[in-house]
Amino acid sequence: MSPEQKQTRYVQVGIGHRSLIYANAMGGPHRASSVLAAMCDKNRGRLELRQKYMKEKYGYPDIALYDGDDFEKMIQEQKPDVVIVTAGPDVTHEALIIRAMELGCDVITEKPMTIEADRCQRIVDAAKRTGKSVRVTFNYRYSPPRSQVKELLDSGAIGKVLSVDFEWALDTSHGADYFRRWHRRKENSGGLMVHKATHHFDLMNWWLSEKPATVEAIGRRGFYGADTGVAESLGLQGRAERCLDCSCKGSCPFYLDLSKSTELRTYYLENEQYDGYFRDRCVFSADMDIEDNMNVIVRYQSGTLMSYCLNAFLPWEGYRIAFNGTKGRLEHGTVESTYIAGDGRVQGGTIKDATYIRLLPAFSTPQDLAVRVGEGGHGGGDDVMLADIFDPAAPADPLKRAAGIGDGSYSILVGVAANLSMKSGRAVEIADLVTNIPVPSWEA
Ligand SMILES: NC(=O)c1ccc[n+]([C@@H]2O[C@H](COP(=O)([O-])OP(=O)(O)OC[C@H]3O[C@@H](n4cnc5c(N)ncnc54)[C@H](O)[C@@H]3O)[C@@H](O)[C@H]2O)c1
Known about the structure:
Bound molecules: nicotinamide-adenine-dinucleotide
Order of helices and strands: EHEHEHEHEHEHEHHHHEHHHEEEEEEHHE
């Protein structure tokens, strides 16, 4: 950064697990271009812990701390250029994004942008009214193999894509985690159709450079919860509300010991007294209403059809996709085994060369392509994305991976429509849900 370039002034709201990558970016490689002026959270313990961490690790001066009720005060006093929203539950994003824009700030928000159509409409309208921008951090776009797939599709390697088969698998470690926390209630997360699949639907929209038009879905919860019979089949009688107090500790394959992971212990277990946020609720409790098995059919505006399915109780985690085009087929998939759910176990181990990209040209010989690899979080996507966000000298991106309100809207609206379709049994038109959606990144 040249001396005359101004540092961007940031504040961050929501200081849980996910917020750390942004703090590390501003404390470490992107220190010269950024200032983290203040942090806001409902949980005082997590705020103080992060303040101490930034000081000890990066020599960062005391970052100003604000309680959850003082979000506006933080913006008024600290006058940031940009507010970074990393709060959870996801339902909190809408109010924080809108207020930040009304107070004159641009916004960077974690996915999902929000969880329902009316909330999405209010964000779209507020951006128009205020002239401020919202960037949605779709880190999945930045992982090298997924960018490679985008380049292949854009190059016309399989001609025009007519249909797509897309399967995403979540395992009994990472997948189960959504049934332990706030995610397990739709009013908080929109269910996995929104909370998780916003990543998948965004990838597909961006890969195809297409806007979704019509959605039909069915879904159910057949594994987690008190009413599926799975806990009984595992012999788990007399379960408690959370793992900490549970008599099934010794026999439950889902037992999570928060005290065994430094992050889960220090950020969550040791700060429960501030907010009663238990990070280890029973995956077989009655208090959940999200699905763990969903099937969705999407028709895109150009006519391309996609079938998508998500299961959250599988022995492996990852995905398999087949794009079927007028000049051939492109197959891509991976097995992801790196997520550690708290106590150090890594489910599935590491499968060598688990990521593949296979090009099957029509009337010709199939080719297994060399796959680009990346290091770090989310298949190498996190670090590339952070550089794109925080480095003012980042080159223009031909893949247009920086996502805005248009991208954030179209990705969640597939999941929102799927939720509505699951209820009504009917197809849902995206155009009936939200109006005046700005153009997504690939059309900008
Ligand atoms: N892009 C990704 O791959 C990825 C990965 C994980 C999480 N996420 C997203 O990041 C967000 C945070 O996830 P997490 O796992 O860190 O959640 P978390 O529950 O562990 O932490 C969220 C934090 O937000 C705070 N908070 C809640 N409401 C608030 C409010 N109104 N004002 C201030 N603070 C508030 C909570 O006290 C908590 O400290 C979620 O929206 C989630 O969907 C994205």
